[in-house]
Here is the input.
Amino acid sequence: MAANNRRMSGKKGAQVGSGGQRRRGLEGKGPTPPAEMRKGHAKQRAAQAKARRAQSRSKGPRGKGTSELVVGRNPVVEALREGVPATTLYVQQFIDNDERVREALQLAAERGGINLMEAPRPELDRMTNGLNHQGLVLQVPPYEYAHPQDLADAALDDGEDPLIVALDGVTDPRNLGAVVRSVAAFGGHGVVVPERRAAGMTAGAWKTSAGTAARTPVARATNLTRALEAYKKAGVVVVGLAADGDVELGDLDALEGPVVVVVGSEGKGLSRLVGETCDFRVRIPMPGGAESLNAGVAAGIVLYEAARRRV
Here is the structure.
């Protein structure tokens, strides 16, 4: 077999050049990017907020709550009176048509968009796990939570300083509803709640909000401490309410600018990490000697003070 007599060529390879870098460096930067791609532009923030909402929806439970059933004649009528959003009103077949049943049917018909479904008693027993439904069951759809940054972005887009309330460890939906109502009353821009171990926007929260939840967004944070740190990086002052706070509410000038007010639970107050994240720990003077206020009342006092200063 003939040997391979090819010899390695001694020819040098191509010289390494600039690769056109110097020439490209002299070229123009091209047209101005659209507003959606410019850092800090209002349209970019709006586009980012839209993307976050879409991402939350794609993740299911993280962006939305779960469906809820309001059970019983009085609870169903009260929920419909207060404008709690609903998709379906289930009515038991051959039900005794008393005043509450007639009012529930009338309210559902007047609001529109609520399906009326007749169902046998065994089916309603199965749906409610045997609760005393009295022949009326109202289905409340999952609540669509905002992203915490959406609240600040919406305020800035309207030319206003953000005024936001964050709840730390508040587990009573009625307190959440009361805070939402106070935020709406005093011109706030929304409420932030943690994803775990905290009250969500249930039918009870909707009822306590007296309908204001329809126009006041509630955001859900995977980690409240990180959400507060993100607010601080965006120039929003984080104020925590604490009975042993260093600053009295009347002396807090930060309320005149962008601010997040953090309210803890009535029993435990602020958690350690959240308390350490706050720029100020503020106390509400209570000459009567009460040790603490519930979250709804405390938030309402601070929001009123902030609204008074911003007039």
The longest strand covers residues 163-168. The chain has eleven helices and eleven strands. Confidence is low (pLDDT under 50) at residues 1-9, 54-63. The two ends are 100 Å apart (CA to CA).
